[in-house]
TrEMBL record:
<dbReference type="Pfam" id="PF11716">
    <property type="entry name" value="MDMPI_N"/>
</dbReference>
<protein>
    <submittedName>
        <fullName>Maleylpyruvate isomerase N-terminal domain-containing protein</fullName>
    </submittedName>
</protein>
<dbReference type="InterPro" id="IPR024344">
    <property type="entry name" value="MDMPI_metal-binding"/>
</dbReference>
<keyword id="KW-0413">Isomerase</keyword>
<dbReference type="InterPro" id="IPR034660">
    <property type="entry name" value="DinB/YfiT-like"/>
</dbReference>
<dbReference type="GO" id="GO:0016853">
    <property type="term" value="F:isomerase activity"/>
</dbReference>
<feature type="domain" description="Mycothiol-dependent maleylpyruvate isomerase metal-binding">
    <location>
        <begin position="13"/>
        <end position="159"/>
    </location>
</feature>
Length: 229
């Protein structure tokens, strides 16, 4: 098996290309529209995802010894939906101030356009049986790529909340993000049948609150939401 045969690599390529298409033609005014993440404009959120792509480049260039201590699902246990609000506020403020350091919001887009394809190329040459270290954990390469895909898909949905004409994430990347949420959900839980994949991802990530019907269908599992922050 070659690295480029990894389904996670194909999903990452789709996820990052989808974000590139979403922001590539936006004006500086559009990049200052609100995102779904509290306190962040589109450009601020794009900078946050850019940091993920940069982190991917570092991790993929620095193989780690195994075994892994987390996988594509348990990795997210360190980022619960009910995490430390003060820490989240500090992180959000740092990203916003960093994005504001660019002369114009489109500067973030240009750096993303250089960095995201490089991260995808690095993922394509990574050893699928290898390991990487990131965020204080060791993951198998395919699981690491799956975490990047999940974050990119959720944030793609966040980016376009005030941009109704912009397309959402692609099906291959979305399927990996949905599988992540399935892994975080109780085995006994039943996903409400009227939820689309975007609904599921946004509710699982705490972007959209559960309604009464959701809570009745989910039962005790409703208390697990949001599944990640």
């Amino acid at each position: 098996m070659t690295a480029t045969a990894m389904p996670e690599h194909r999903a990452l390529a789709e996820a990052y290309a989808g974000i590139s298409r979403a922001v590539g033609d936006l004006t500086d005014a559009d990049l200052q529209r609100p995102s779904r993440c509290r306190g962040w404009l589109v450009a601020d959120l794009l900078f946050h995802v850019l940091c993920d792509a940069q982190r991917a480049l570092v991790a993929l260039a620095s193989p780690a010894d195994g075994p892994a201590d987390v996988d594509r699902v348990t990795y997210w246990h360190a980022f619960p939906g009910n995490g430390d609000p003060a820490a989240a506020a500090r992180s959000a403020w740092w990203a916003r101030r960093s994005a504001a350091a660019f002369d114009l919001p489109s500067g973030v887009v240009r750096l993303w356009a250089d960095t995201a394809p490089a991260a995808v190329r690095a993922a394509g040459t990574a050893d699928p049986s290898g390991f990487v270290s990131t965020q204080g954990h060791v993951l198998a390469v395919p699981d690491f790529l799956a975490t990047l895909v999940t974050e990119a898909v959720v944030h793609h949905l966040d980016l376009i909340v005030d941009l109704p004409a912009v397309a959402g994430p692609g099906p291959t990347a979305t399927a990996i993000a949905v599988a992540t949420m399935d892994g975080l959900l109780s085995d006994d839980a039943v996903r409400p049948p009227d939820w689309s994949d975007p609904d599921y991802l946004l509710k699982a990530a705490g972007r959209i609150p559960l309604n009464g019907t959701d809570r009745r269908v989910l039962g005790d599992a409703a208390g697990w939401f949001p599944l990640l922050g």
